[in-house]
Amino acid sequence: MEGQYRVPVGEFEVETEVKKSRFIATGVPVASEPEMRAFIDSQRRRFPSANHHCSAYVIGAPAKPRAAGSDDDGEPSGTAGKPMLNVLMGQEVGDVCVVVTRFFGGIKLGAGGLVRAYGAAVKELLAEWPLEAREPMAALVLRFPYDQQGIIDSLIGRFEASVGGSDYGADVSLNLQLPQRNLDDLTAALDERGHLGVSYKVEL
Hints:
Layout: E1 5-8, E2 12-18, E3 21-29, H1 33-46, E4 52-59, E5 67-71, H2 81-90, E6 96-103, H3 110-128, E7 131-134, E8 137-144, H4 149-158, E9 162-168, E10 172-179, H5 183-191, E11 199-203
Antiparallel strand pairs: 1-7, 2-3, 3-6, 4-5, 4-6, 8-10, 8-11, 9-10
Helix pairs in contact: 2-3
């Protein structure tokens, strides 16, 4: 389906060797930047004698991530984290963080060699890592008078939305999640009921 991307099922690790340098690529699913940072820190603690812990992450769909970035961790600028991130983006993998831990083997690889080695480590990881398809989702907060409950319930069903939270005060307030592909049609239907007190805010 158009717009789908792949996400990791769980933690996975592969090890490669290039000119006596060991490259340990470890990846995990992440849903937030704090999760990403915690994982990178855990890899530093796990391999305290390693020379480098280079990283790349994509949170959300690769085509339109909520956050994405990379870190060369002391390797020459652009030779480690960026090639890793390019592989994740190119293979359309999201909600992911990968750390490639390097133990230097005594032979310098040069800038081009580092780019190839770090990129290849992530490619090797993705080739074996169990991944599953995920569809991009959208979120919005919806407010409406109680007398609109019936039609709103109908729209929720029609556009495959789910209710993540609700508040029943003077009006009804719902937190909705739905497939990104249905967002424009749902908001168009809600706009038609704006004069009846229906309002919404799309969450970015």
